[in-house]
Amino acid sequence: MSLVIKTLVLLGGMSFAVMAADLRIGIVGTDTSHVTAFTQILNDPAAPDHVAGARVVAAYRSGSPDIESSRSRVDKFTAELRDKWHVKIVPSIEELCAQVDAVLLESIDGRVHLTQVRPVFAAHKPVFIDKPMASTLEDAREIARLAKESNVPWFTASSMRFGGVAALRSADLEGAMTWGPGPLEEHHQLELAWYAIHPIEMLYTLMGTGCEEVTRIVSADSDVIVGRWKGGRLGSVRTLRPYGDYGAIVFRKNSKGQSGEVTRKVDEGGYAPLVREIVQFFETRKPPVSNEESVEIFAFLDAAQRSKEAGGKPMSLR
After folding, report:
1. Do 13 and 144 belong together in one domain?
2. In CATH, what number is assigned to the domain containing residue 83?
3. Residue 76 lies in a domain
4. What DSSP assignment string belongs to 286-307?
5. CB 198 within 8 Å of CB 183
6. What predicted TM-score, i.e. pTM, was given to this entire model?
7. Mean per-residue pLDDT for 128-150?
């Protein structure tokens, strides 16, 4: 499809072309650095990691007063969207949906995602739901149910899915270990959804669906979560507090039929690979991560929480 220049926009002293074929993107939730980082990648053609085909044009200001990292940053990020990137701040999600082709649900508080996504589904706009998708398994399942009922495409994913870990995936993989930051947030019922979702999504990138049982062992500065997949494959995650590097080990048989391993410290890779997947999803309406896998991850988180509460006993996925 050929692109036609629609207008010229002055931004920070520079003028650049806006293409008529660009998708109009709206942001719900302005309390995370993702909103400004994603907007720069999409709206600034001069950015080294620019992703073409879509522009952020509107945003709905939203934050959570009981989460410090939301409360202390929502005004800063809202102002940058408005003043630097000339994004229109609108008073409601319904008004936002009327002005855009697709939605980025960016609120850092997973508790509000079910409420905030309802008007998006009602407006039949494809939506990317940033981490964490929800704060409970029940909310995650309800989001999936409402999307199916409304026939609206959606997906959720950590940016870590599309970095170095994807190169370790293979059909003959026998098991995997991943690790990464795992700080907790007291208001989220599923503790690991807050930040440990990143190394857990890395594990699912490698292992795929089919986990049947989860065991979680907890200490002050880390967790070890072990999943048993159908057929006996084992996958584990080590979460590091307050923060730590990302990494992965995969196990597969070597040419002699013996179990071997490949180790790699996984580069975070920035946000551009994820943003590229989001734009392609908005164009094709085909999610790069299946909705079934995203819901199973929350069943994994739920089983891990129940295992912790039971003193480390194995728990089946609900």
Report:
1. yes
2. 3.40.50.720
3. yes
4. --SS-HHHHHHHHHHHHHHHHH
5. no
6. 0.90
7. 97
